[in-house]
Amino acid sequence: MAVTLAWGVAGTGRIARTVGAVIAAHPQMRVAAVGSRDLTRAGELARELGAATAHGSYDDLVVDPQVQAVYVATPHAQHAEVVSAALRAGRAVLSEKPMTHTPQETLRLVELARATGVFLMEGMWMRFNPLVQQLHRLVVDGELGQIRSLCASMGLASPYDPAERLWNPALGGGALLDLGVYTADLARLLLGAPETVLARGSLAPTGVDAESTLLLSWTDGAQAVLTQSLLTRLPGTATVIGTTGWAELSPTFHGPLRLSVHRGGDDAVVTEIADRAAGFVGELQEVARCLDEGRTESDTMPLADTVANARLLQDARDQFG
């Protein structure tokens, strides 16, 4: 990256602050502006991140001439509106996961990005964690033999509040959209598109899924068990088992600090990293790299994978209402 990439941050919540701070700390990036429907909150975050400008609307943010790329960190239900406006304004977009509520809405954004020739990527920071990438290489290279199973879980004990984002269908609530997006993406990354998806779960009074388990199967007999919950804290690990070895990502597989690889009776080979934010740095650098090279999408997190993940999650949600 030869020049500084100037970002506009859309949203002022926890993830906007987290990723905004990573941008601000990067020597070749800066936060140029922050946008929110609440100008006061936008101003507070702009000062925190060293941004020169705060906007009281997302429409103003995406047309700000200082802004080259927009990081969309609004609640899920607002993603489509903000991403669409940014693409139409010719601004590169990194959208938090999931990109939208539905595969149809996600596909519309992908088609818009391709029609306008503007860069778009879903912010699946897990894919840019070096340990996840190392595990992917092990699987692709056959270092664990033929993969037979994958088990992954994500769960948190969230107090029930029908107005809170996780429990509110209007804000994109539910365990699958918030947590299952990671388990589903890991399964597809390591094993490809499943042949069948079987989903079971329970619904909260608001109608969103409170917890779920997905059983995915492939034509070669491989299976994945994916569990996500808003009711209880789960281990957050992912274990991949092959015919000649197995590997585990921990302590949380979507932002792991440790990869343990076991082959035969040998002691585990353990690789550790110190920075849990490595995935955020990686995804931001991927946007900059693609823009430098004139690319309109990433080959590490391609748009086809974003659409396929959205379809898998919709299939699961449909199965238990």
Plain-language structure description:
With 321 residues, the chain is of the alpha/beta class. It folds into 2 domains: 5-123 and 279-301, NAD(P)-binding Rossmann-like Domain (Rossmann fold, 3-Layer(aba) Sandwich), CATH 3.40.50; 127-275, Dihydrodipicolinate Reductase, domain 2 (2-Layer Sandwich). The chain contains 9 helices and 14 strands. It has helices at 14-25, 39-49, 58-62, 79-88, 103-116, 130-140, 175-191, 278-292, 303-319; strands at 5-10, 29-35, 53-55, 69-72, 92-96, 120-123, 147-155, 196-203, 209-217, 223-229, 238-242, 245-250, 258-263, 269-272. The strands form 2 sheets. Strands 8-9-10-7-11-12-13-14 form an 8-stranded mixed β-sheet, with helices on one face. Strands 3-2-1-4-5-6 form a 6-stranded parallel β-sheet, sandwiched between helices. Strand 5, helix 5 (103-116) and strand 6 form a beta-alpha-beta unit. The radius of gyration is 19 Å and the shape is globular. The N and C termini lie far apart (46 Å). The model has no long low-confidence stretch (mean pLDDT 96).
